[in-house]
Design brief:
Largest sheet: 6 strands, mixed
Radius of gyration: 26 Å
Helix content: 25-40%
Oligomer: single chain
Shape: globular
Number of strands: 19
Number of helices: 20
Distance between the termini: 46 Å
Length: about 650
Amino acid sequence: MGAPGKLVADTTLKKKAEFLPPPVRAPGPVLIDGGRTVSIVAPTDAERPLAEEIAWHLKEMSGKDVPVVAAPPASGPAVMLSFRPDDDVEGSEIETSGDRVKISGAGAGLSHAVTYFLEELGIRYLWPGRVGKVIPKRSTVVFPLTNWKFAPSMRVRGIRGGLVGPSAKWRDRNLKATKALGLDPEKYRAAVNAAYFDRPGNRDFFEWHGLKDNPDCFGAAGTDPKTKYKWGHTFKWAQKKGFDKEHPDWMALQPDGTRELKNGRIDRPVFCLSNPDFIKRSIEEKVAEFKSKQREGKIAITTGLPDGGGGSPCMCERCRRLDPVNAPPLYFNFFSGTETKYVSLTDRTLWFFNQIVDGVMKACPDKKGLTFFPYSYYIAPPVSVRPDPRLIPLSVAGDYVDAKRWNWARENVASWMNLGLETYWRPNLMWGWKVGGPQNYARRLFADYEDLKANGLKGVDFDCVANSWGAKGLNVYINCRVALNPDRLSFETIFDDYCQTGFGPAAASVKAYFNAVERMNEAASREIAVRAPKVLDFRQVVRAECYYDHLDVAALEAILDKADAEAAGDAEIRARLALLRAALGYAKCGKAVREAAKGKNSSDAGREAFEAARRAYSAFVIKAVEEQPLAYTPTGICVFDPWMCDFGSRKNRKKKK
């Protein structure tokens, strides 16, 4: 192994986010009353969709038709929209003058301003679809006196969420798993699509909140080819059958002495990062990619390694000498299926990336650099190799399920920012516990996210967000609010508003419900920290056991019963409560399967009880998807749930010939 490194990681954040009370504004222009109706002014096609969205919301609120016109009326109230070409600032402005409201913005800034305008009228988008859209009913609509300007601190606001449209990727990777539960994948997709939008033409939930709404945001609808940055796993040129035979010395030396791909994962090869010929070829491939038509306009592309596969990292002497002996210790769980203690591979990986970025930038001096994921066995900060400043990290750190990792995200992201790098956050933490049921880590997510923003975080790309709005909706909502948070509101202010606007007379009970879920989840997290002490232990059985053991379904049902009684007579509020109740139903079924699993190997009767519990879970899912398709993404049950996933894989597995 290599000599001890002398770098000391600085994992501290220098600033704490500061928050303000909600703004208090005096009444301003009367937009709608018994004798007047506002006009929405859209001078060009650029403003027209947002103008029509405003008009629709105002009609839903007041019952009156609201005209959209191209020029301001001679008299009477008007909301005038003005779009400016994107100037990379995304500035937003709202100004009231007399009976006029002027809304302007650069690029996505106009959308941000429209959301702010509608929310000042009391409208909220708690989760996708009509049930999640809160529109108060008023015969008189008054907009407050406002002189508001805002520009977001982060231009990159990505999130990978939603299961809508004819995406082949979703069909291949997730939807086929629904067959194991007796669901028709396309009917499930159709049910989600039908529930997902409140009105054709309106912005979706994420765009409403300022995510995925500009060309720099990964996954922005219709804008991927225009993004200036490209990140992700790469080396597709080496992901082909027989590549390990063509270049055996470029592949990782395995514990068995071979350099062959393991488990047939040609899409996830593992390389010898110290091989000079492999480095040279990697540089040539990145230079060619920068100069290709496909990457025209990109200022940064990815050099991220393939995602983890079945093979171990290279154990040749040359690679091992790049691993400082004092690097953080880790447990590797893919050495021929055995668990092996070694050290972090960050320094060897950064050494490799440094060679690549230096070679690429010499050939492409007009570009900004190369992106990469601090990831898996190379996520810890380095102890020896200082990264080239032209490397752009997107940290994947983040886990609120394991108590010993509650501070992992803030410390890891801080370590890369404190190395002077342009740093982004791309966590998988939104999947939480990979089982069905209510989950609440919104408070911790909010604190980390806001503090990272205060310390110069450049952007985010949250992965593993799906349509589990009844189970994880508060987490996603808080995530989205932080992306902009123009009034610098605290967590408690946003949380209280979520409960009050969405649940009215049942707000206190709903808040008690979420707080109870948070307490139960955190108790499970503390037990996980004791029972699964290894940092890179990805075994989900322990996590699932702790989740269910600490989840008191009966207590949570009692709180929702109380909320239902408080909301009696209000169909909209009870519909929102039904979403929460459906998510709790997933937990009830999952907990029954967990209990039955304890005796599945004790006798034939125990095995049958276990299978009966799984069949009951499947029956519940079929009904829940029909009635509440946004409560929880059932594909996760077959993909991740430790007692249902083998059930799913067995159903989907092709028979051997």
